[in-house]
Each structure stands twice: as C-alpha cells, then as structure tokens.
Design goal:
Length: 573
RNA sequence: GCGCCCGUGGUGAAAUGGAUAUCACAACAGUCUUCGGAACUGUUGUUGCAGGUUCGAGUCCUGCCGGGCGCACCA
C-alpha cells in the first residue's frame, strides 16, 4: 500500500513539476495524523513561490482526482503536511496474507548479490572474555543478521589474539606460578580465570620494574620465534584453554563463525606486506621502527614494525584485512566491529589499505561501539577490574532461575530457559541503544526483566503462543483467505506488524539494530494491549479466526525481529 | 595542547531537519471472577548555555561550559 501511494504521488508531482525525488512517505508519530504522511509541500513550496498550504492543496486536489484504491482519505494538517489514511480492510487483509507467508515474513532479497564479511568479538587468548566482548558479539551478530535478512551473503569471522606482548605478560607470570597451573581435569572456566589472573600480574610486573619489562620483552620475542620448548608448552596449553572456552561461549550466544583467522598467522603476513610497501614508500623508517606517517593525512602516526623487528597490532591488522579479500574474493564489503576507542586507529588502517589497494580500502568499514562502563569508571582487563561474560551470565541466570522456580520445569528445561532469557536480557540491553554509545552496567540488576527489556519481548511471544495453543484446542483456525469476518476498525497492532519489512530495510541500510529493538518494544506493547482488550480464543466470537491470524502474524513478526537481534524465544518461561 | 565523539524528565535511553519530543525504570493512582500479572490503564516531570542557518532545529553551523576516547613501538 505504501508503494501504491508513493507511485501515485510521484505522478502527481511530475504533473505539477515537482521533482519526484523529493517525495518521502513517513509514518507519522501520532497515529491520529494518518497512516502515512508527506512533507513534499513544505519542502518545495518556496522554490515554487507558493505557501506550503497552497501547494499542499494543489497536490491534494490532483491526488484525489484519481484516488488509489487503498486510500480512504487525504488531508492537510499543521504547517502543510499531507496525511493519508488507508482503508482498514487493507490492513486486516494484509495480516491474513502474512500468516500465509509464514516464517519468511520481513525477509527481502533487496541486498542479493552483496557479499559481506563481518569480523567481531575478537577475544584475546590468555585474557578473560569480558562483557566488552559480549557487546562486540551482540552487535556484530545483529548487523550480520540484518544483512542476511535482506538477502546478502554473509561470512562471519573471528580474529582471536594469540600472539603479542599481552601473552608474554601472562606466560611470564605462569612461569612464576608453575605449581598453581590447573590440572587437565578442572573446569575450563577455572583454567581461563587462572590465565586472567596471570595476565594481571604480568601487567603489574611489567610496569613496576624495568628488569621485568626487559624480561617480558625478551620472552615476547621467544614466543614469536618459538625458540623455547618449555615456553611453547605453556603457550600451547593456555591458547588451547582459551579457544575452547571461546567456543563454548559462542555456542551459548548463538554465533556460528565461518572461520577464524589468528593473529599469530597474520604476524608474518603483516610483516611481509609492511616491508614490501616500505620499499614503495607507503611506510618510512623512523627511530629504528617502521611507521606510517599519519600526519601527512591529518591522522596519527602509527608504528607497524617495532624497533625490535616485531610486527605490531597495526601490521597484523593490515595483513588480516588483505587476507580477508584473498580468502573471500567475492567480498564487496568488509565490516569490522570493535570498541570505539579504536576509531582513530582504524582511520589510519583504512588510509593505509587505500594506499596499498584502493579497492580494499573503500570496501573496508569499521564500526566502533561504545563501552561497558561501571558507575566507578572504565572497565579494564589490565587491572583485573572486569566483569567476565561468565560472571554476568551466571548472575542473571540466577535471577531468572528464582523467577521460574516452582513452575514445574525439569532441571534441563529450567537450565535452557534461564540461559535463553539471560542472554536475551543482556543482548537487548546492548542493542536497544545506538551502537556508538556507552552502556552503563552498574550491576547485574541493571538488566531488567520488565518494560523495555528482552524478557518482556520473549514473554509476549510465549504468551501469544500459549493463546494459539488454546485456540487449537478450541478448534479455531486462522483463515486461508480474507473471506472471513474482519474487524471494522483495525488496531495499532495490525499497523505495526505491516511496517516490519520497512523497519528491517532501514535498520540494515543504516546499520542501526536499535531501530529494530525500539520497534519490537512498541510491537509487544501493542500486542499486550490488544490481548488485554480482546479475547482471542473464544469459539463464540465471529472474529475469532481473524484474531488467531493476527496473533500468528504477531508471533512471526516478533520471532523474526528477535532473530535479527540474535535473541531466541523459549517455548515456555 | 591537537583530533574525534557525547551532553534529552530523578535514572537509563529513543527520535531519516518535521506536527503536541517517544519509551522504560522510579514515584503516585488505578484495572482484572478472563486465553500466562515478566501484563494493562492513567498522573507528575526533559532537549547544558549563548548566538546563527531554515518555512521548521534535540538534530546542521559558530562560540562557551561539562564529560569520554585517542594521539610512536600495548591490542
């Protein structure tokens, strides 16, 4: 129906010599203003030497000469908005067709032919997987699913850090605490917690004493060169522990990476590329290091090869982002999700990529997300002042368990439900706001179960499904076509459901999952309100089949929307 | 010091340059003999300051005040 109005408005505009490109159909914030509105008159009035109202009147006069079938009325309001009211029957007919479309509803092939790589989460071996990684994961997963929902081919990759000074710091401390290294049989969480502790100790030692610093720097070189068997053994052990732990977390969070590229693999690659382009002048030598002179481009200067001859993070990332295009040649967009503290750094990287390969440079995009904060300040894995993903998950699971206690779930059921709800609550808290902003995590208690929350959304679906079960028992079926009793007036619920494809398209174009989150909250509210005012599964109600269809359409829309956010829906809760 | 980002009710957030700034939490007042109360309905209360651009500014521009992040061998 939107297209129908849009098309007609376009031909009207052409007739009045208004550029059709200036047409924009919006959903008015206040539903009383109508189903669609356009600011075309206000935007063009001045150019045409008319007042906005006069122009609006001309447009409306022309528009109503041959009124599209979908439109009930057109009116002018406020400073010159043109508001369109769509016939209610169109909404209810569309609801029935959505039920037929089923699980596909909202998906489109508008981005078919796009091949996008998403790199996100990027945890560090030998360090804890903290809530910052959770944040990157939630955002990257959601962005990739948005692309997928619009028909793009998506490749998800992870770039775990398994080489570098931070690892030398951990191993240095491990050597000091050999007797405390966890045995093979202990839980993986305990092993990685031990690594985290070693890292903190290594950091403190590195900063405390110059001799420690020298030792750790030397150890770093040993690790790069794999020149000591005892060091290699510790390295392999710790690396394996971390990676195993990551796999478990990804599975819980619902991320399936298509591949991992390791920092250690990229070290020689980055080194080689940097040297090659040192020769061609992209990089220069300075104080014994190889650097990129960012100042020449209004950016920071960054070191790519250290004066000790080791590739820095910069060189390794360079290798990574070139390797991505070698491994996946069809790629036309490569998205990297990291914390926004790296924004300036990624501007440098993008510049270097452009200088090396224009094509790769233009196709690579960095998205910086905000940070997880405490009231007390920034979280830091260097000082051990972190909330680990594991801690947060178990705290919230605990709260969920208490809530569902006594509802007759088996231990396994309760376990699964708690996990789905806990993860939904965390992901929603991250995705409901703009990606660039910080998320304040005062305590686990800040993850709410009510109102503007993931569990509220999940609950609305569970409840709707429960109603559908009852309808089934009563023998009420959703109609196969629109030849049933339809409501005279349609509610906000119908109108919101039909907007879903538009919402997804916009959220994908702008990479703004919060638009989906925001929409879903309104949608859930509309359903809960509908539910409170209408009995859906009532055999004696002539509208019952339609209401069942509406409930089904709601379940599909909400489930698909939650999928985009990476949030699962439990069967019961 | 330079650069980038951000200041929205008591709190946390939303708002492709559009209409009366939206939502949740908290507070207060209600609803339900109901298909799941993690619900629904209502009340109170908000764009840091000063200019400018625009038919129209939370949004764009300038200055100020306040905060965050980044600026050479960490990632």
């Amino acid at each position: 129906m939107k297209q129908e109005i849009n098309k007609h408005l376009e031909s009207v505009a052409t007739m009045l010599a208004i550029p059709p490109s200036s047409i924009k159909l919006d959903y008015p914030e206040n539903p009383e203003h109508g189903d669609f509105s356009s600011n075309i008159a206000m935007a063009n009035a001045k150019k045409m030497g008319l007042s906005p109202k006069d122009l609006a009147e001309k447009i409306v006069a022309e528009f109503t000469k041959d009124m599209p079938a979908a439109v009930e009325s057109v009116s002018i309001a406020g400073p010159g908005f043109i508001n369109f009211k769509v016939k209610d029957a169109l909404f209810s007919e569309e609801i029935i067709s959505i039920v037929k479309v089923g699980a596909e509803y909202g998906w489109s092939d508008g981005e078919k032919g796009r091949n996008a790589i998403f790199e996100y989460t990027d945890p560090n071996t030998f360090k804890v997987f903290h809530i910052g990684h959770l944040m990157s994961n939630a955002i990257g997963e959601s962005l990739s699913r948005l692309d997928q929902s619009q028909g793009a081919a998506v490749t998800r990759i992870c770039y775990p850090s398994d080489i570098g000074l931070h690892i030398a710091k951990s191993i240095w401390a491990m050597e000091k605490h050999r007797s405390e290294i966890p045995a093979d049989g202990v839980a993986i969480q305990e092993k990685t917690a031990f690594l985290g502790k070693m890292y903190v100790e290594g950091v403190q030692a590195y900063e405390a004493l110059a001799t420690n610093k020298d030792d750790i720097d030397a150890l770093n070189k040993v690790i790069y060169e794999k020149s000591s068997d005892t060091v290699n053994a510790l390295y392999e052990k710790g690396r394996a522990w971390s990676l195993k732990h990551f796999e478990l977390l990804y599975a819980r969070l619902g991320t399936k990476f298509d591949g991992s590229i390791f920092e250690s693999e990229m070290a020689p690659v980055g080194l080689e590329i940097t040297k090659k382009f040192l020769a061609s002048g992209v990089f220069v030598e300075s104080e014994g290091a190889v650097v990129f002179k960012g100042e020449d481009h209004g950016l920071h200067t960054r070191v790519f090869i250290s004066s000790k001859g080791l590739p820095t993070y910069e060189a390794k990332e360079l290798g990574l982002n070139i390797t991505k295009f070698e491994k996946y040649p069809a790629t036309n967009e490569s998205v990297i999700v990291t914390a926004s503290e790296q924004n300036d750094y990624f501007k440098v990287l993008k510049k270097v990529l452009s200088l090396i390969d224009e094509n790769i440079g233009t196709k690579t995009h960095h998205i910086g997300h905000g940070m997880m904060r405490f009231a007390s300040g920034k979280m830091s894995s260097r000082t051990g002042k972190v909330i680990t993903a594991e801690d947060l998950l178990s705290d919230i699971r605990e709260m969920v368990s208490e809530k569902i206690n006594g509802r007759g779930f088996s231990v396994e059921e309760a376990d699964e439900i708690s996990d789905i709800i806990a993860i939904g609550a965390i992901k929603y808290t991250i995705l409901r706001q703009a990606i660039g902003g910080d998320v304040i995590f005062d305590s686990a208690a800040s993850v709410s179960f009510e109102g503007d929350s993931g569990p509220y959304l999940q609950y609305s679906v569970v409840r709707a499904n429960s109603v559908l079960d009852k309808a089934k028992q009563e023998g009420i079926e959703a109609p196969a076509d629109a030849k049933v009793v339809l409501p005279e007036r349609v509610s906000l619920l119908e109108k919101l459901i039909t907007r879903f494809p538009d919402i997804l398209e916009r959220a994908r174009n702008e990479y703004t999952p919060q638009h989906v989150a925001n929409y879903l909250i309104n949608l859930a509210g509309a359903f809960n309100s509908y539910y409170a005012n209408n009995i859906i599964a009532d055999k004696n109600e002539p509208l019952a089949p339609y209401r069942v269809a509406l409930t089904k359409a709601f379940v599909t829309t909400m489930t698909n929307g939650l999928w985009v956010l990476g949030i699962r829906v439990p069967k019961k809760m």
